[in-house]
Write a structure and sequence with these properties.
Elements lengths: L1 H21 L5 H8 L7 H24 L24 H23 L2 H7 L4 H8 L3 H19 L3 H20 L5 H41 L5 H11 L8 H12 L5
Length: 266
C-alpha cells in the first residue's frame, strides 16, 4: 500500500512538472526568433531581442502582482437568487473566476495600445535599436507574454483548466505570428468557456432528468403517507423537513407533485 502511494505521488509530481514545463512554451528565444526576426540579426541585436522579451515579461509579472486577483472576495452565492443550479454548479466559476482573469487582461490593454510600456523599455537601447525593434510587432509580444503569464498565474492558483485555456491562447497567438494571421485570445477563451458551460449544462440536466422521476415518486408517497390533501401543504412539509437546501425550490416540488398525481413521472 505504501509503495502504491509513493508511485501515485511520483506520477502526480511528474504530471505537475510536465504541465509546468509546457507553460514555458513558447520560450523567450522562440518569441524573439518569430516576431523579432532573430535569424536576421547580428549577435548584439539577438542579445537585445532576448533582453527586450525578458523585460516585457518582468513588467507584466509586476503588473499582475500589483493588480491582485480578487475572485475570492465578496463572492458569497448564498443570497444570489439567480443561482438555481441543482448539480455541478458553475456559478462560482462564471461569476468570479473567469471575470477576474478577463478583467486583468482588459486592464493591461491600455499599456499594449498606447505604447507606454514599450517606450519605457526601449529607453535602455540605442536609437538604431529602438527603430529596429519598433519595426516589429511589439504589441503582439506584449499580448502574447500577458496570456503566458496569466496561464502561470492560474496554474499557481490551482486553476488548471483556466491555465490551459490561457496557455492554448498563447500558443495559438504564437502560431498566428508565424503564419502572419491575427488571433484574438479573448474571443478564443470566450468560445472555450461557452463550450464548457454547454457541456456542463448538458451533463447537469442529464443527471437532473434521471433524478426527477425518483423525486416525483418520493414526493407523492410522502403526500399519501402524511395524509396531506393539497400539493401546497405537501410542498411546505417537504421543504421544511426533506429538501431543506436551496434546490429544488418550493414551486418545483409543487409542480412535480401535480405532474406525478396525473401519472407524469418523466
Amino acid at each position: 500500500m505504501y509503495n502504491r502511494v509513493r508511485e501515485d505521488e511520483r506520477a502526480y509530481k511528474l504530471m505537475y512538472k510536465s504541465f509546468e514545463l509546457s507553460l514555458s512554451r513558447p520560450t523567450n528565444s522562440q518569441v524573439a526568433k518569430t516576431i523579432l526576426l532573430d535569424n536576421e540579426c547580428n549577435e548584439i541585436q539577438s542579445e537585445n531581442n532576448l533582453s527586450f522579451v525578458s523585460r516585457v515579461r518582468g513588467a507584466i509579472c509586476t503588473f499582475l502582482q500589483q493588480n491582485k486577483l480578487e475572485y475570492k472576495q465578496h463572492n458569497d452565492l448564498e443570497d444570489n437568487y439567480k443561482c438555481e443550479c441543482d448539480y455541478d454548479c458553475e456559478c462560482y466559476f462564471n461569476k468570479f473566476i473567469m471575470p477576474a482573469f478577463k478583467n486583468l487582461a482588459l486592464s493591461f490593454e491600455p499599456y499594449i495600445n498606447n505604447g507606454s510600456l514599450v517606450n519605457h523599455i526601449l529607453e535602455e537601447y540605442t536609437t538604431e535599436e529602438k527603430d529596429r525593434l519598433l519595426s516589429c510587432d511589439l504589441r503582439e509580444i506584449l499580448r502574447l507574454m500577458l496570456y503566458k503569464e496569466l496561464a502561470y498565474l492560474a496554474f499557481e492558483r490551482g486553476l488548471y483548466d483556466v491555465s490551459c485555456w490561457h496557455h492554448e491562447a498563447t500558443v495559438l497567438m504564437y502560431g498566428g505570428a508565424i503564419t502572419n494571421e491575427r488571433f484574438d485570445p479573448s474571443e478564443y477563451i470566450e468560445s472555450e468557456l461557452s463550450a464548457r458551460n454547454k457541456g456542463k449544462a448538458n451533463k447537469r440536466w442529464s443527471k437532473h432528468n434521471q433524478l426527477r422521476p425518483k423525486k416525483k415518486k418520493q414526493y407523492l408517497e410522502i403526500m399519501d403517507k402524511q395524509n396531506f390533501t393539497t400539493f401546497a401543504e405537501t410542498a411546505t412539509y417537504i421543504k421544511q423537513y426533506i429538501e431543506t437546501g436551496k434546490t429544488p425550490s418550493y414551486r418545483t416540488i409543487e409542480l412535480w407533485l401535480s405532474q406525478a398525481s396525473r401519472g407524469d413521472f418523466s
